[in-house]
Design brief:
single chain; 101 residues; mainly beta; SH3 type barrels; five-stranded antiparallel beta sheet; two-stranded antiparallel ribbon; 1 helix; 7 strands; 15% helix
Length: 101
């Protein structure tokens, strides 16, 4: 992949370095990642290497079982679990602490 002539060759490395510095600053914080495709990902920043960030992303889980007592069903319980996902810096546009001010 080649860069346009007006973009310096060090720009992708500068972007990765600035994201790595932000990751080190907000390690173990709740953050929001803005992705290049327009998505935003909420999660807890767990660790960062030079090329990627590891984030614990929450997902909602509903209890599978339902208990019935005298004809009435109890509401299903909701749980939240976290899955570790890795995001390369080349797909990340910005990183913000949550809630951002």
């Amino acid at each position: 992949m080649s860069l346009p002539k007006d973009v310096p060759a060090s720009m992708p490395h500068d972007h990765q370095r600035s994201l790595h510095d932000l990751c080190r600053k907000y390690m173990h914080f709740h953050i929001v990642l803005k992705m290049k495709d327009g998505r935003s990902v909420h999660g807890i920043l767990e660790e960062a290497s030079r090329e990627e960030a590891s984030v614990l992303v929450p997902e909602d889980v509903m209890e599978e079982r339902q208990f019935y007592y005298s004809g009435y069903g109890y509401p299903r319980r909701r749980f939240r679990r976290f899955r570790r996902r890795t995001f390369p810096f080349i797909f990340i546009t910005a990183l913000y602490p949550f809630p951002y001010y």
